[in-house]
Amino acid sequence: MYSSTDIIGILPEFLLVITAILVLILDLLDKRGETAGVVPLSLVGFIGAGIVSAFLWDRGGYAFYDMVVADNFTTVFRVLLCFIGAITVLVSPAYLRYRDIRLGEYHPLLIIAVFGMMVMVSAADLLLFFLGVETLSIALYVLACLDRRDSRSTEAALKYLILGAFSTAFLLYGVALLYAVTGFTSYAGIMENLRETTPDPLAVAGIGFLLIGFAFKVAAVPFHFWSPDVYQGAPTPITAFMSVGPKAAAFVALIRVFGIALDGTADVWMDALAIVAALTMTLGNVVALRQQNIKRMLAYSSIAHAGYLLVGIVAGGQRAFAALSFYLVAYALMNLGAFTVAMLVNRRGDGDYQLEDYKGAGFAHPLLGATMAIFMFSLAGIPPTAGFFGKLYLFSAAVEKGYVLLVVIAVLNSALAAYYYLRILGYMYMARPERELKPVPRLGAYTFTLILTSAIILFIGALPAGMLNLLFAALP
What we know:
Elements: H1 4-9, H2 11-29, H3 38-55, E1 62-63, E2 68-69, H4 72-98, H5 103-122, H6 126-144, H7 151-182, H8 187-196, H9 201-217, H10 226-233, H11 236-261, H12 266-288, H13 294-315, H14 318-346, H15 361-364, H16 366-380, H17 386-400, H18 404-430, H19 444-462, H20 464-474
Antiparallel strand pairs: 1-2
Helix pairs in contact: 2-3, 2-5, 3-4, 3-5, 4-5, 4-11, 4-14, 5-6, 5-11, 6-7, 6-11, 7-9, 7-10, 8-11, 10-11, 10-13, 11-13, 11-14, 12-13, 12-18, 13-14, 13-17, 13-18, 14-16, 14-17, 14-19, 14-20, 16-18, 16-19, 17-18, 17-19, 19-20
């Protein structure tokens, strides 16, 4: 028998599943094939799940035999993931109709993907976490290839599927080896068992396999190869979604697994993770410098930001985890906004997301120019944006723990990254188009998204302490 605590603990996820089923039924009943009602229904589902999640603040706990943890940390990221889902729904319809992709196929998969991410952040057991990963991954494999007329979309999905299966095997082997050593798959059981004994070679191998699985999910070097091709080939709203949602869910799980459950074995994996962080941010930024395709540039930028975020896992401790969470919130906002601008500007050019399309766009389209400036300044870490304070808090926490060299590498990389972020603004305000470009469509959903995300970035940048204190109070 399940108690009321169990039901309340998974209520947001339950609402998303119900929404996905209703969207499927609505699509089935719509004989005209327009499925216009799926957009408001999907939005209601995400907003409802987010509101329910917020009401669970200080009311949650462990559920389903301690496999689910509905604490305040889970609440924060449930709300964030619902926000990401809602924004993706807002910016998708115009793009999907332009590319002739059925709304009725797209939205249930998107909802199930968010459901998988919410399972990941609320998991207190490696097996439940694995189920969340697989739910998310299967939905993303299909979403990546929804643009069936574009061979790059099919190629992206195939690469993602093959490499995803490869990483899943490592993740599952890691779970199996840790279970063989400790007799537990729960985070708490593993933590207690490994804290009392020195890890044997089997446990070390299990930790290594888990690290490989996580490295793939966050696109960390040397398991990043899938990211640029998949980001470029997938439908752009899905690229935006993939760049922020799965990364946020994976880093929450990294905090729970490596930052807490495996904290007693930090001597085994800490140096390796520090090296991975340094390589990830450096390779991502260096390769991004040479990109002329905005989607590939943002893909390598995403790799670099994964390196910055890994600094928080390496540093460890409450302050570093709060800073990492702050950075995840800021990163989600600025990346969603940047991809929204990319979708609009792309309609000016030849449909291939080239930087050339940005020439003169700042003066021709003032809203796009102003909001893109905010997103690029925030990604570069320039005050007074949320991205600046995210890096400041994260790097300060790492310096406090003695990782000065790693922070120096991160700061140098941030300076390097500023070049290719500001280069976009140079194209927008300091260059003239060499050919006649199409007009940018004026769409209310895009305008709302750009104003909302840029306003929140500036608001958090103006009052960063409030957000940081909230996240600090929510930590497990």
